[in-house]
Write a structure and sequence with these properties.
Blueprint lengths: L9 E5 L3 H12 L8 E6 L8 H11 L7 E6 L6 H16 L1 E6 L2 E3 L3 H12 L5 E5 L18 E4 L7 E4 H4 L9 H6 L1 H7 L6 H9 L7 H10 L3 E5 L4 E3 L36 H31 L19
Parallel strand pairs: 1-2, 1-4, 2-3, 6-9
Antiparallel strand pairs: 4-8, 5-10, 6-8, 7-9
């Protein structure tokens, strides 16, 4: 008898990159569970007249999309921006369906991606310490696992926004206004603990809340931290982000994060209980240490430049986040 798999709805956010969107949808369609998955696509409105043709091209592509059990397209008349679009769209779908698998328009997936994501959602649905599932993992050239690591997944206090999933009850715990921000920033111990997921996290959160990056996922990471929650990551990535080519609003060209999807496993065994492996997390944190140092140097240089220019408006340029996308 064929295996019966309960499939979560797919939620894809798109903006003005038809070529990237086409690759994302084609890869999803190649998954063996695509035909039993409902697809919701949220298309943000154009920011300017100059971007309207590319937004229209994306929408024309969406209306020719096939290969899924159902398709619902939400075309926004105005530009809500990346963060607002994702928060509202994911909230709508998980409220209606209880869970969701979420991608942006530059995420190319392995043919086994949906099988892995749905299996993980089923496996950890009742384990309340797990708040999210990541389809992405850092490539082997950046992150080396300790010799003899026995599992095919690992647990991480830092979620990832490159092909991910969650459940309604976990998503609804997020405080998107971050009412605790002032007290959190005054608590040196809390800030140090938060950066167990990477030395860049406090800087990233500050950039997000002060509007230097149009993102949402630093707040989602803070939600994991405040609830002592974890994300599940595969050892071999099911996701390749093809948007770090400089085409995205919030990303600079950077190919270091690319993955070889031929390494993705057709099936995975999921361990319990959910616990962080200290050696694995040390390897993960090393990747973000250099980035955090570079960010802090840039901030110091900006402060020095402003202090030497009394006429400066104090306007700060946006910094690329990692992970990133556009809209």
């Amino acid at each position: 008898m064929a295996e019966t798999v309960t499939t979560a709805p797919l939620v894809v956010f798109v903006y003005n990159r038809p070529a990237h969107t086409a690759r994302t949808l084609a890869a999803l369609r190649a998954n063996d569970l695509a035909g039993t998955s409902d697809l919701y696509v949220f298309s943000d409105g154009a920011k300017s007249e100059a971007e309207r043709p590319s937004v229209h091209a994306v929408r024309e592509l969406l209306h020719t999309t096939t290969g899924f059990r159902s398709l619902e397209i939400v075309e926004k008349p105005h530009n809500d921006g990346l963060a607002n679009s994702i928060i509202a769209g994911v909230s709508q779908v998980v409220r209606e369906r209880g869970r969701a698998i979420v991608l942006e328009d530059d995420i190319v997936t392995s043919p086994y991606f949906l099988r892995y994501m749905n299996a993980a959602l089923e496996r950890y649905g009742d384990l309340r310490r797990v708040f999210s599932i990541s389809g992405y993992n850092l490539p082997p050239r950046l992150m080396q696992f300790p010799p003899g690591y026995p599992h095919q997944v690992y647990f991480n206090p830092r979620p990832c926004a490159w092909g991910w999933a969650t459940w309604c009850d976990r998503w609804q715990t997020a405080d998107w206004q971050v009412k605790s921000y002032a007290s959190f920033m005054q608590d040196a111990g809390a800030r140090r603990a938060f950066e167990e997921g990477g030395a860049d996290l406090v800087d990233w959160l500050v950039d997000e809340l002060e509007g230097r990056v149009q993102s949402w996922d630093a707040r989602w990471t803070l939600t994991h931290f405040l609830h002592g929650a974890l994300a599940v990551y595969p050892v071999s990535s099911y996701v390749d982000n093809v948007g770090n080519d400089g085409s995205g609003i919030n990303s600079r060209a950077n190919l270091a994060w690319r993955n070889d999807l031929a390494r993705a496993l057709s099936s995975v065994e999921f361990p319990t209980p959910a616990a962080v492996d200290p050696q694995v997390m040390r390897a993960f944190r090393r990747v973000f240490l250099l980035r955090a140092t570079a960010t802090r140097i840039r901030r110091l240089l900006r402060r020095l430049l402003r202090s030497r220019d009394p006429g400066s408006s104090g306007q700060k340029p946006a910094c690329a986040r990692q992970p990133s996308t556009d809209s």
